[in-house]
Amino acid sequence: MRNLRGSRVLSAAVVVVLLGGLYALGGLRHPISLSAGAAPRPRHSVPVTSVVRACPAPGAQFSRGGGLAVMAAPASLGSAGTATQSPGRGSSSAGQGGAVVTRLAGLGSTTPGPAVVSITKAGTPRLATVSLDRTGRAQAAPKGKPSATTVVSTAVRGGVVVQASGSLAQGLEVEQTSGANLPTAACSSPGTDFWFVGPGQRTAGRIQVYLMNPGSQPADANVDMFTDAGPLQQTTDNGISVPPHGMIVQSLAPVLRNSRSVTLHVRTSVGQVAAAVQESTGTGEGAWLPRAQAPATHLVIPGLPAAAGSRQLYLAVPGVKDANVKVSAVTSRGTYQPTGAGGIDIPGGSAAEVSLASLAGIPAAIKLTASTPITATVMIPGGTNGSPGSFTAAAPALEEQGVVADNVTGPGRVSALVLSAPHATARVSVTQISSAGSARRTQTVQVKSGKSLVVALKAVPGAPRGAPFAVVISPLPGSGPVYAGRVISASGAGGTLQAMLPVASALTTVPLPPVRSAAIAPAP
Asked: Which of 12, 24, 35, 455 has its CA 20 to 30 Å from the CA of residue 289?
């Protein structure tokens, strides 16, 4: 009872103080008004002026060298396919800039590694070979022995960092390539949170996660793992120290033994890293898993090609709640539920594999709706030596534009885009820009609501036969959300799939959030 009376007395005192303050302001002969602030202004944006990307394979012993494909598509591209500075979308303030490719230092370094490539021209794709890193020991001796509950970290040499500024940072896309200039993966920007989903140790005998630190301060990372059997509770894989300008690799196969599907969640507690995951059947370099979109209740997996072979859908449910997942295929004939993809129930904290055999040979996107947040990847037969398959992963709709740095067409290879509009009709501009001179080709395509469309990427007019080229995909005003994937296959009907990649947004500007204010102020 005393507490109740005390609360009433305190409330009354607060009211008195507040009224006294208002009276004092009133003595200044200014009436009082309560304001919620000005109406929010239209959203503004600033140009992208600096971007960092990190790639594990170029220059590494396990990849036998490899290389890079770099394309910057700034806010304004001239008619010849090269960048011009104009006031549009803030490009005039970005400046020409440049991009420098430096080596990672393996064991770490206080300064960036030596430069191996410099790029000064925006608007034209650049392919570069990176020689093997022979500057020192290939790796540091691992501490401890791998076991079913212990993961060993090893510092390795190889890998590069791309630091771009000015117009070279706008619309930047970087892909690592094999010795035959075949793209193997998109290079990541440093971050604090990464998701990867794919087949488990039964399919991929070697599963390795690469952690790269392009910064000048050490970073601490954790890798959370869960499989079709549930989360790995007793695995020691926390507090991984990644040295500045260094790269750490971990072999996860021993702790993922007998798993059918696996999900890896890489997060940092200190600093930022760029993460990549490589899977192999045991021989050859294998395949790189694309980074999957963060868990959500609505997802789209773009870019399933017309290539033959089964479609294996890998689903991850990271939360504690069980998930009911509905699967739809967005094809050239419309959206429907494929055979074997009815309501799928998956326990929380686990991963699952679902076979979608009825989609073999059908270009499509996969639309997922779940009762609790999930993320996902699709595997299709194909890829380089030792690959369990080729992969595409859940990705957001394109914002502003999407860029694909390395495409090829010619003897033995054809490239294509698979564009999908699961929600509303989409209209996009597709521009191909050759790495040889100023040759380019632009077309406008429409993707009807609820359907997918394959856009064949033919040789760029005026470019030498077989010359690599970049592609810029730009949603036009009024377009519905569009999702894109790029595929490279062997020539001929039903050709073997060689590379597959979901297309991510490559921004030239960064939107600024509106500023709201609330204040008590005297009115004039």
From this structure: 455
160 contacts: CB under 8 Å, gap ≥ 6: 54, 55, 58, 59, 68, 101, 102, 103, 104, 116, 130
Which residue, 359, 390, 421, sits at the end of a domain? 390
Among 364, 390, 416, give the residue marking a domain's end. 390
Please state the separation of Cα 251 from the chain's center in Å.
22
473-495 pLDDT per residue, tens: 999 999 999 999 999 998 766 67
Q: Which helix (H) or strand (E) holds 12?
A: helix 2-26
Neighbours of 63 (CB within 10 A): 23
Residues spanned by the domain of 479: 46-294+391-509
How big is the chain, counted in residues?
Answer: 524
Q: What confidence tens digit (pLDDT) does each residue in 314-342 have?
A: 999 998 999 999 999 999 999 999 987 87
What's this model's pTM, rounded to 2 decimal places? 0.86
Domain count within the chain: 2
Query: Do residue 374 and residue 419 come from a single domain?
Result: no
Integer Rg of the chain from CA: 26
* CATH number of the domain bearing residue 363: 2.60.290.11
Dihedral sign for Cα atoms in the order 198, 199, 204, 206: positive
